[in-house]
Design goal:
The protein is an alpha/beta fold. The chain is built from 15 helices and six strands. It has two domains: 230 residues, P-loop containing nucleotide triphosphate hydrolases (Rossmann fold, 3-Layer(aba) Sandwich), CATH 3.40.50.300; 61 residues, Histone, subunit A, CATH 1.10.20. 54% of the residues lie in helices and 9% in strands. It is globular. The model has no long low-confidence stretch (mean pLDDT 93).
């Protein structure tokens, strides 16, 4: 049994297309969105409307509180039984979302590595403080394959990679080869893309709609909660929080949301381009969900 994975950058048109695909397959949708897992974060994460949620069963939405962290490991642990149950029932699961790490964890397996060694991390952090660039150069020497996947300024990921190497005694890139798919089914991966200028215009339009629909009011409720580190940094909310603290004006906060969302879309595309076995569908100039769905169907009919 195959699972269909519909991915793409934010605002590209995944939601409507995934609904039509799931309806055609008489199946259900598993959301692969690291922010839609949180309750009370509806407008800012562009969750499907109640009507859409009723039309097609959705999973992995509203499964965590904004005061707690939600990991890829938990996503896999909760999503896999749902996918397996759908497959046993003869249904093709539709996995839709823009969190590439969650999708990779399902299709290729999740490498969790050793537990955090805070003493080692502190030592590595100290080494970097004494000589800027030392840790990245060290990683390039020990594990150039992993180093190519990490930006030189991403100290957190560099330290984690070195931590894994020192704890396991092998390059992280070698250790990751031992992972196996989290779920026993085939995956048909589809990535929707648009010309960048068009996508950015759609992002700006969506942010305007979110603000009109009450994003700041929704964020105000969250502002008074003891949020997790992840939710406190969520795009749309952190900019609103900055406005609530008096650090920026409301108009500037809106502009900051648009800029942060554009940057996020760019990072998403960078991730997807590095993925394996993706079927790319350029939908530039196509805004009718039915026409996008038709392009998806024409591709899936050969898979």
């Amino acid at each position: 049994m195959k699972a269909y994975v519909l991915m793409g950058p934010t605002c590209v048109g995944k939601t409507e297309s995934s609904l039509l695909l799931a309806e055609a397959l008489k199946s259900e949708i598993i959301s692969a969105d690291s922010m839609q897992v949180y309750k009370y974060m509806d407008i800012g994460t562009a969750k499907p409307s109640l009507d859409k949620l009723r039309a097609v069963p959705h999973h992995m939405i509203d499964v965590a509180l904004p005061t707690e962290e939600f990991s890829a490991g938990r996503f896999v642990a909760e999503a896999v039984p749902i996918i397996e149950e759908l497959c046993k029932g003869g249904k093709h699961p539709v996995i839709a979302g823009g969190t590439g790490f969650y999708i990779r964890a399902l299709s290729e397996g999740l490498f969790e590595g050793p537990e955090a060694d805070w003493q080692l991390r502190q030592q590595l952090d100290s080494d970097e403080a004494n000589c800027e660039g030392f840790l990245y150069n060290l990683l390039c020497y020990i594990d150039p394959v992993t180093a190519l996947k990490i930006k030189q300024g991403d100290k957190r990921r560099i330290i984690r990679a070195l931590e894994v190497i020192f704890k396991l005694g092998v390059p992280m890139s070698e250790a990751q080869k031992n992972t196996t798919p989290s779920v026993n089914c085939g995956f048909v991966k589809i990535c929707l893309t648009r010309e960048r200028t068009e996508l950015y215009r759609m992002i700006e339009d969506r942010v305007d709609v979110m603000v009109h629909d009450g994003l700041f009011e929704e964020a105000r409720v969250l502002f008074d909660m003891p949020l997790s580190k992840t939710t406190s940094r969520a795009i749309g909310y952190r900019e609103a929080f900055s406005y609530f603290r008096g650090e920026v004006g409301r108009d500037e906060a809106v502009l900051n949301i648009k800029q942060a969302t554009r940057r996020y879309a760019k990072r998403q595309m960078t991730w997807f381009r590095a993925e394996k076995d993706i079927n790319w569908i350029d939908i530039t100039g196509i805004f009718d969900p039915k026409k996008i769905y038709d392009k998806i169907i024409s591709l899936t009919s050969t898979n």
